[in-house]
Amino acid sequence: MNSLRIALTELRRITAGRLAKLVIVALVIVPTLYAGLYLYANHDPYAHFDELPAALVVEDTGATTTDGTRIDAGRDVADKLLKSGDFDWSETSAAEAEEDIREGHYYFALRIPEGFSRTLTGAERLDPKQAQIQVITNDANSYLSTTIATNVTDKVRDAIASEVSEQAAASFLLGISDLRSGLVKAADGAAKLEKGAVTVRDGAGKLAAGAGDLEEGLDTIEDKVADLPGKTRELATGARKVADANGEIAAVGQRASAAVDDAVAAYESNRADLDARLEAQGLDEQQRAEVLAIYDRGSAPLDRVDQRVGDVSGQLNELATGADQVADGNEQLATAMPGLVAGISQAADGAGELRAGAAKLGAGAGKLATGAGDLKKGLQNGVEQAPATNEELRDQIASTIADPVAIDSVSEAKASSYGAGLAPFFLALGAWIGGYVLFLLVRPISTRALAANQTPVRIALGGWLTPALIGAAQMVVVLVVVGLAVDITPVNWLGTLGFLLLTSATFIAIVHMLNALLGAPGQFLGLVLMVVQLVTAGGTFPWQTIPEPLHPLHHVLPMSYAVDGLRQLMYGGLSGRVVSDVLVLAAFLVGALLLTAYGARRQRVWTPKRVRPEIVL
Predict the structure, then answer these.
(1) Residues ≥6 apart with Cβ < 8 Å to 221
(2) Closest CA to 427 of 487, 338, 500
(3) Which CATH architecture has domain 190-375?
(4) What is the DSSP secondary structure assignment for residue 248, as one 8-state letter?
(5) Highest mean pLDDT: which of 243-252, 372-381, 440-449, 573-582?
(6) Cα(422)–Cα(429) distance, rounded to whole angstroms?
(7) What is the pTM for the complete model shown?
(8) Torsion of CA 600, 602, 608, 613, to 10 degrees
(9) Would you kindly state where each structural domain of the chain is located, as residue ranges?
(10) How far apart are CA 423 and CA 432, in angstroms?
(11) pLDDT, tens digit, for every residue of 150-160?
């Protein structure tokens, strides 16, 4: 009686009737019911978030920036959320949202309060504050709704922060561009200032030299004109005497002219008297005319004398007037000469001061030129350090500043959905449950084989083969249903199936061993072991997140390696790790069979406790 015959005998026993066959079929589909239904229900819950009712409360009334731009950030956020369709959003009031969340009509609410836009623009008014978005949740509706709402608000906050940062960066870069333009103009101005200062310095040097020459010349003139006031006074005195003499001479000329005029008048008067006397002597008109003609011959010299005396008298008058004017001018010159001499002295002093001032001006202009040169270099360095940008480049830089990091996700192995991510864990758990329920029907040790005195190893293999065969059928069915019906398709079909068969065989061997060694307590221990592996296998969260005292259990229990191997094969990851997982499961399989053989060997000896066990299932 070999192991195969022992297994076939047990298989015939459990399939002897129609109902027994139905029981076997039911046992085959137990893992499928467990893993398949769970994965089907949780295949892709994120795809149905658009059916999750959520409230949206918008109380923001907008704001106006310092440059007059109108922004309505709250309304913009609300419109984007409504348009996204990520959730079943309903816009409502704050009071209605809170009431409906308490009643369970909404899972969460987002409230954008009044002043939201104004707070966002507070930085430009030097009043920076964080804008608030209120999240209203109720864990009595669903604990995960709070997590989902938090994720939503984080995304909204990041989007708003990115947009605000982009606008602020754009304004900042525009300011830098304007600053650069100003620096360029300032540098040009500094260059012109430097050039002008050099010109002023050179001109000041020439001015100082000219002022020195002027001072020297004025000093010479001052020496030369020192005695001019006395001499001009003497000249004025003499000119006045000449004027007085010329006046007297002009008076004589006037008297002479008057005498000549009197003589001419007397001559004219005597002619008339002569004519009368000749008429009295009895001379006719012709005779009188002849006598008068002789008389008139003396009038020509007299007229010439009168004309000449009149001319001389007029010239003497003009001379007297000119001499008087010359005397007045000399008097004025004599009066003004001391002031002129003093002015020359002051001009000489002023030329000295001008020379000293021009020297200082030259020195200052030199310093100004040096400072303007340094200013020009500094401004030019500032221009070089301030980037030259255009509108397109500023927009790109602002966008990069607002969102500086782009996530380039490179996945060595990727689960297609949430359900696919849980599939390795629930397939492994289904394999354990499938193996566990089999021993509600299958006997772990064949009493007939014990009675026939078969070897313990043969008995152990015979008791394991029958549930292992049914377990293989379980794994084929569950993988086909999960892959085709639930649409969680492994990358490596054959590898996944082979690994599932090994996992099922190993888990069945372990449950078989517990039943063979301990009987009814072993069946209970198999249930406890399943619970322990639920929390230590790292099927949902990474195993490092479990409490540290449970870490050793993760490394020593077989489901950890089953989950890890299924992940590699289903997602197409680091297949080299599958080899180690296979070796560990194979070691558990061989070890469990050996311990089962030890249990079979013990059961060859009948004891009172075995005849009347304390616990009977």
Answers:
(1) 344, 348
(2) 500
(3) Orthogonal Bundle (1.10)
(4) H
(5) 573-582
(6) 11
(7) 0.59
(8) -50
(9) 3-44+417-610, 49-141, 190-375
(10) 14
(11) 777 777 776 67
